[in-house]
């Protein structure tokens, strides 16, 4: 063989990777906390955990996730600075469900070819979202996979770790009959159900630059709306003196894959029932448009998409006003959408589906009734 084969000729550009790191440094530097030790470029991210030693019984919480096929929308629009909010939201907001404070996060980007500006845009979005969530971005990895991924293809994943005092862990054991179910508005589709969404718009022949009057913007702009990151606001809700005085937060549920009903059922104890009323909110236009455009059955739509509810908080009646006031002040529309009762006393509609537990959790039951406002 007369031709020399180098790493670069095999499709891996080390210099491009180094340039990407230089471009992302400033954004990553802002996504930090006082406990971070060292800086960007080490083999491992380091975090000073000495504060944990002062806790009575510290419980570590960890989560990992990706963004799914929403990356196809970012690639189609060649806009990569928002997908990081989707990644961070999917990871750190799962940790908050148990009452834990997310401390630090790492990311992983696999791509067919390193384009420094693209990688820097992705990581810049991750860093901004971490900064908003008060989470340190302590490290990451960008891997170039020529021949496995197309030159403009990439996928993102991340993992985070948090901590909570054992006595403060939120779980089904805290939820009680009489608790009010509060819905926290989503920013849109968030990061779930895009396989369905892409199938619907593909079958309809809609293009990303199509102006959709119901959205007030183009289809692509609507679909790329970043996931709302709730972590910091929910941690403040848990600690708010007025909320605590009213009985505190009893439970939280992150509405992701599986939809509202199934995810709420995961955080209810067996024997309790939550009845949710559709008349208490109007799903944003993107949900009804996708449903109508693809003739998607309502139950299938609700099992796949969040329908305008990104998170659920379960609080006792005396804490409702304080919780709503705090969240609304943070720009999160919040409303009472139902109530928890003993299943034996619940007014269960026999004609409506009841979901009991989900994803391997043997939990309580949830029923969604009525017609959307």
Automatic annotation (TrEMBL):
Residues 177-346 form the PurM-like C-terminal domain. Pathway: Purine metabolism; IMP biosynthesis via de novo pathway; 5-amino-1-(5-phospho-D-ribosyl)imidazole from N(2)-formyl-N(1)-(5-phospho-D-ribosyl)glycinamide: step 2/2. Its EC number is 6.3.3.1. Keywords: ATP-binding, Cytoplasm, Ligase, Nucleotide-binding, Purine biosynthesis. Belongs to the AIR synthase family. HAMAP family: AIRS. This is Phosphoribosylformylglycinamidine cyclo-ligase.
């Amino acid at each position: 063989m007369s031709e020399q084969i180098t790493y670069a000729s095999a499709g891996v550009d080390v210099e491009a990777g180094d340039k990407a790191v230089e471009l992302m440094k400033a954004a990553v530097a802002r996504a930090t906390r006082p406990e971070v030790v060292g800086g960007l470029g080490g083999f491992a991210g380091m975090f000073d955990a000495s504060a944990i030693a002062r806790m009575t019984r510290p419980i570590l919480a960890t989560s990992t996730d990706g963004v799914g096929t929403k990356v196809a929308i970012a690639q189609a629009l060649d806009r990569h600075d928002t997908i990081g909010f989707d990644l961070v939201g999917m990871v750190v907001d799962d940790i908050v469900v148990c009452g834990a404070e997310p401390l630090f996060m790492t990311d992983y980007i696999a791509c067919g070819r390193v384009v420094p500006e693209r990688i820097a845009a992705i990581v810049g979005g991750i860093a901004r979202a971490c900064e908003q969530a008060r989470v340190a971005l302590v490290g990451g990895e960008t891997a170039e996979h020529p021949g496995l991924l197309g030159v403009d293809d990439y996928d993102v994943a991340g993992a985070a770790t948090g901590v909570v005092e054992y006595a403060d862990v939120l779980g089904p054991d805290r939820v009680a009959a009489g608790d009010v179910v509060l819905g926290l508005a989503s920013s849109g589709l968030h990061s779930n159900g895009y396989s369905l969404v892409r199938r619907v718009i593909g079958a309809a022949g809609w293009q990303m630059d199509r102006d959709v009057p119901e959205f007030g913007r183009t289809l692509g702009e609507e679909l790329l709306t970043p996931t709302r990151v709730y972590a910091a606001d929910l941690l403040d809700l848990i600690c708010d003196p007025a909320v605590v005085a009213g009985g505190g937060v009893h439970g939280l549920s992150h509405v992701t894959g599986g939809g509202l009903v199934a995810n709420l059922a995961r955080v209810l104890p067996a024997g309790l029932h939550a009845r949710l009323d559709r008349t208490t909110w109007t799903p944003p236009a993107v949900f009804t448009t996708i449903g109508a455009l693809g003739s998607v059955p309502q139950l299938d739509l609700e099992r796949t998409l969040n329908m305008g509810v990104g998170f659920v908080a379960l609080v006792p009646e005396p804490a409702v006003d304080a919780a709503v006031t705090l969240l609304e002040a943070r720009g999160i529309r919040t409303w009472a959408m139902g109530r928890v009762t003993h299943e034996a006393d619940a007014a269960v509609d026999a004609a409506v589906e009841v979901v009991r537990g989900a994803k391997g959790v043997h939990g309580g039951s949830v029923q969604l009734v009525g017609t959307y406002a």
